[in-house]
């Protein structure tokens, strides 16, 4: 009998990875003044805003630095690690 495919582990690892990558691309785009006039940046904002928005409401910006992005990135990495460790082997 072959072991089951680790579908849930794959979804957790790469699903959260796509969100983190989207956040990083959006951050780099903001540094180069590429705003939401471009459809791709609007798409990334649509993906990442549900994660950044709640943190942004709790943590105000410090000067011109938006700490909500850094906090959200840290929380997503921690959540990914914890979920991967909580899954049984082969899931």
Mean pLDDT: 89
Q: What is the overall shape?
A: globular
Query: How many strand units?
Result: 0
What is the number of helical segments per DSSP (H or I, 4+ residues)? 3
Task: List SSEs in N-to-C order.
Answer: HHH
Walk me through the structure.
The chain has 91 residues and is mostly helical. It is built from three helices and no strands.
Outline of this structure?
With 91 residues, this protein is an all-alpha fold. The protein contains three helices and no strands. The protein has helices spanning 7-31, 39-58, 67-86.
Give the topology, please.
Elements lengths: L6 H25 L7 H20 L8 H20 L5
Helix pairs in contact: 1-2, 1-3, 2-3
Features of this protein?
71% helix, 3 helices, mainly alpha, 91 residues
């Amino acid at each position: 009998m072959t072991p089951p495919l680790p579908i849930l582990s794959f979804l957790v690892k790469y699903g959260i990875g796509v969100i983190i990558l989207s956040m990083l691309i959006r951050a780099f785009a903001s540094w180069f003044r590429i705003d939401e006039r471009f459809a791709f940046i609007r798409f990334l904002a649509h993906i990442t805003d549900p994660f950044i928005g709640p943190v942004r409401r709790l943590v105000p910006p410090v000067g011109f630095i938006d700490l909500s992005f850094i906090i959200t990135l840290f929380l997503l990495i921690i959540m990914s690690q914890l979920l991967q460790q909580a899954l049984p082997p082969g899931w």
